[in-house]
Amino acid sequence: MTYAHKHDDIARCQELLGQLNDYVDGELAAELCHDLELHLADCPDCRVVFDTLAKTISLYRTLDATPVELPQEVEARLLRRLSLPLP
Amino acid sequence: MPGPKIDLSVYASETALLDGLRAGEPDACTCLVKRFAPLVYAKAVRMVADPDEAEGVLQLTFIKACEKLSTFEGRSGLGTWLYRIATNEALMQLRRGHAAFATLDTLDETIQPADLPQNLHAWPIDPARAALNAELHGQLDHALAALPASLRVVFVLREIEGLSTDETAAALDLGESAVKVRLHRARLRLRELLAGYLATEGDDP
Question: A36-44 contacts: CB < 8 A, separation 24 or more?
Fold first, then answer.
């Protein structure tokens, strides 16, 4: 197996990208993990993709716990719809 | 016109709030709105990516919750129960409004050339240390809204709501492999969209 990887090689990219996603989820078979890790060690482009993909996921996972403000007019319309007095 | 002053601290505990809701006390319902509407609305905006549609989802969620209150068994928290209703309402909204969402699009089930990474610059940000500032928050929401609905809902349910692949597949009436491919495609697209904001320019890896 060679680790020469060009990002214009669509078939190869698709295969690796699919694996990369499973790898991020910890769902890639051990044997494939080993191959992918060898590839990542050798391919700076794939390393960046892996790193930035993982960061993308981490950033979004923090969103659920982020406090949000309900626009006042949205709350007022909701209370009206529920026939409730404005507090 | 300001309404009467309401003391919502009466419903500080979930049990007290539930008792009030079941007794049909309007103040309890107002308290329910105060406590849960902000997060229900935020979740709805993320799912449907449109403030007006999200407001519709918000209203329907609370109307349905009030109607179905007698069926709430208290096995999950009130919040979890409401968020589940909101998710269902958001999905129904998407099915109603977006014909493409309901159609089984086989193109959705494979990684497309357009999904392939273009921006190959590193990101200096450390998500664990990055205080989620308003600007970054805005960028994340903006990128999410730019995804097609069929990819966005899978990403939201899996990554933000924390549903498993099975649960997401069941909620969307999709196969598990379709969920996985859509999740992969959504992640790749979001990565690309965020790269314009987070990548270090001119720093070739």
Answer: A38/A3, A39/A3, A39/A5, A42/A3, A42/A5, A43/A3, A43/A5, A44/B205
pLDDT tens track for B59-108: 999 999 988 888 888 888 999 999 999 999 999 998 887 655 655 555 66
Q: Is residue A2 included in any domain, yes or no?
A: no
**Residue with more model confidence, A3 or B7:** B7
Q: At what angle do helices B51-68 and B26-48 cross, to 10 degrees?
A: 140
Q: Is residue A87 in some structural domain?
A: no
For residue B1, the tally of other CB atoms under 10 A from its CB is: 4
Lowest-pLDDT range of A21-25, B49-53, B111-115, B179-183: B111-115
Q: Which residues of B touch A81 (CB under 8 A)?
A: 59, 62-63
Q: Using an 8 Å Cβ cutoff, are A39 and A16 in contact?
A: yes
> Which pLDDT score is estimated for B5?
64
Backbone angles phi, psi at B36, to 5 degrees: -115, -20
What pLDDT shows up at residue B203? 46
Q: Give yes or no for A47 touching B (CB within 8 A).
A: yes
Determine, yes or no, domain membership for A86: no
- Dihedrals φ, ψ of B120, to 5°? -115, 35
No. of H helices and E strands in chain B?
A: 9, 0
Residue A74 has its nearest CB partner, among B4, B41, B155, at B41
Residue in B closest to A48 by C-alpha? B122
* Domain extent listing, chain B: 7-97, 100-205
The interface predicted TM-score of the complex, written ipTM, equals 0.83
